[in-house]
Design brief:
mainly alpha; Na+/H+ antiporter like fold; 16 helices; about 0% strand; globular
Length: about 325
């Protein structure tokens, strides 16, 4: 088996086996579904901050890398708007429209998919750029999109600087603190101890985070809910796997034409990330704010399977972006 095939097999195996383990744990009564929230919080507090810090620590940042943080925010808002248009055209009720628009807006850019894939394809530097890629998006996600979900649930939400900061101080936002600490260490010139490379600690942490989060996904998955939304699956696939990559390529071209020195690995990472399927964030928001949670889980499962079957094989074949 060649190296590229091995990478593909590892990526798919981690996702599929951990999801199946979570689903089996719930179906056979080994673990209650409500434990998913505790497990998610645990890995976000313990695993994500350490992984982000160690990955970014070795990155030699340039001014051009600032665009790497800006592009996913533009993509999120563009896909959010398109998702709202589709939801209105499909005449979805408010709670379902909120779920679909969030599914369209937010992609699995973090360790559990985009970061994992870029680590396998490009090594630790690829992972580091995925962490940088998601930094500003994380701030917008926790500071704006989480409270905005309440509007779709019919709640009256007030926005202001105090509420924005309060959302960023939530324990679930600790991964952002890890990234910022990693950026500080990178800029300080302090070398990361060689032991982290020698023992492949980053690889182990990313695989752990990915396995745990997909275990939680399987724990929450109800297969009976999956078959009733085929038209929405098709629309979401079009947004994620056609519109988003085309938008990414257009934005990269415009930035390059403007004279920003954006080349090489950052561009490769941004293109790969532009193909990522729906993020778990949309499922979490649906559960937390009383939106259409069954639809959120179904969209996530269907979109992730489409990605694994149709998109990931193309990426893993080693296309020279």
């Amino acid at each position: 088996m060649d190296e590229e095939t091995t990478k593909f097999v590892i990526m798919v195996a981690v996702v599929v086996l951990s999801s199946a383990a979570g689903y089996a744990a719930r179906r056979f009564g080994w673990l209650a579904e409500h434990m998913a929230a505790r497990i998610t919080l645990g890995i976000m507090v313990l695993g994500y901050p350490a992984t982000g810090l160690l990955a970014v620590w070795t990155l030699k940042l340039r001014w051009a890398d600032a665009w790497v943080t800006i592009q996913p925010v533009i993509q999120s808002f563009a896909c959010f708007g398109l998702g709202l248009l589709v939801a209105r055209w499909q005449k979805l009720r408010r709670e379902s429209a909120g779920v679909f628009s969030y599914a369209a807006a937010h992609s699995n850019w973090g360790f559990t998919m985009g970061g994992f894939i870029c680590l396998r394809l490009f090594g630790e530097q690829g992972l580091a750029y995925t962490v940088i890629y998601a930094t500003l998006w994380t701030i917008i996600m926790f500071g704006l999109f989480f409270p905005l979900a309440g509007r779709f649930a019919g709640r009256t939400e007030r926005y202001g600087l105090a509420s924005f900061v309060r959302n960023l101080l939530d324990l679930r936002c600790l991964p952002l603190a890890g990234v910022l600490a990693g950026i500080g260490l990178s800029l300080s010139g302090i070398e990361r101890p060689a032991v982290f490379q020698q023992w492949r600690i980053i690889d182990a942490l990313v695989i752990l985070c990915t396995a745990v989060m997909f275990f939680v996904t399987g724990l929450r998955l109800h297969v009976s809910h999956v078959w009733g939304h085929m038209r929405l699956y098709a629309w979401l696939a079009g947004i994620k796997f056609v519109f988003s990559p085309l938008l990414a390529l257009g934005l990269i071209w415009l930035v390059q034409q403007a004279g920003v020195g954006l080349t090489g690995l950052p561009v490769n990472v941004m293109i790969v990330e532009s193909f990522m399927p729906m993020a778990l964030f949309a499922v979490a928001a649906a559960n937390l704010y009383g939106l259409d949670a069954p639809l959120a889980s179904s969209l996530f499962a269907a979109n992730t399977v489409m990605f694994l079957v149709l998109v990931l094989p193309v990426i893993a074949l080693g296309i020279n972006w």
